[in-house]
Amino acid sequence: MPHVVTRATAPFLSATGALMVHQIPSITDNLIWLAVCTQTGAAAAVDGPEASSVLEYCQRNNIRLSAIFNTHTHPDHIGINRDLAKQHKLRNLRVVGSESRAADIPGITERVREGARVQLGDAAGEVWLTEGHLDGHISFLIDGVLFCGDTLFAGGCGRIFDG
User: Fold this and answer.
1) Pairing, β 145-147 against β 152-153
2) Coil, strand or helix: which one is 53?
3) Is 34 in contact with 54 (CB distance < 8 Å)?
4) Nearest 5°: CA angle at 92, between 141 and 98?
5) Rounded to 5 degrees, what are φ and ψ at 55?
6) CB-CB contact of 34 with 60 (8 Å)
7) Which one, of 120, 123, 76, 115, lies nearest residue 96 by Cα?
8) CA 145/CA 139 separation, integer angstroms
9) Phi, psi (rounded to 5 degrees) for 51
10) pTM of the full predicted structure?
11) Are 118 and 127 in contact (CB under 8 A)?
12) In whole angstroms, what is the distance from residue 78 CA to residue 104 CA?
């Protein structure tokens, strides 16, 4: 089955230009967001079901992946962690995720909660607790760009599981 997104949105700059945000289609119905600090080149993939699409994209565009930001622990969001771990590439990355779900996030190095500050290179951000879809679900607001996992969908709110 082909991917539901036939053409990725062109990369765009954040509010102050501190981040370049890329959209990478993955599997058949997922998008992986890649945020790149325009000053330092630090790059974070936000969630993802697998790693190959991100690694190939980074190689094609001369981007060095340095972090994974996980919004929640469903397989299509932490699959990238598992895939990178199998390839022995996760241990060299910063992995940021929810403190309350840390045990479920492969390779987590940085446990965060509501109000925590996060950095991606020179770009500063904040963590929001956005439970509803899943307990412990978090979102990252970095330089005016909201990475909200499955909190919002094109048709409305994300499906409620246990939140």
Assistant:
1) unpaired
2) helix
3) yes
4) 35
5) -60, -40
6) no
7) 120
8) 10
9) -105, -25
10) 0.91
11) yes
12) 9
